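Work Package 3 (structural annotation) set out to generate three-dimensional models for the target panel prioritized at the project kickoff. During this period the team completed the workflow that converts sequence records into discrete structure tokens, so that structures can be stored uniformly alongside our sequence database. As a representative example, we reproduce one entry of 152 residues exactly as it appears in the project archive.
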Amino acid sequence: MRLQLALNVKNLERAIAFYSDMFATPVHKQRAGYANFEIDQPPLKLVLFEHPDAREHLNHIGVECLSEMEFKAASDRLHDGSLATSDVAETGCCHAKQTKFWTTEPDELAWEWYRILDDAPVTAPNEDASSQAGCCGQQPGKELEPQTVCCA
């Protein structure tokens, strides 16, 4: 597993340059309004959403499960403990095919638990559009505004 940190940034190109230098890691995937890094040390999936008018820098936090076994164990544990706030779903979201579910901590911070099924599908979701479309309704309890980004 590795922690995922999803941030809202004002200028995607400037943020990519900064985080590339800071972590000495090239961007893993970049699309219109979206970029992510797979950082080895510390183990981190850093996701950037270009959202100049966001009121908060933090979009959400997640945990990327790197194997089916890890994902199933986490899903079973969190669903059995009534900590999961959504059912497991397979979805196209932010330029990848994923299986995921959400948990929400007591102060309403959303945590996305997910596993990448296909990191570069031929018909990538939102390939020709901003990453702000298509998957935001999946985050439980999140009231959406136009142009809100909420998926990873």
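Confidence is low (pLDDT under 50) at residues 124-138, 143-152.
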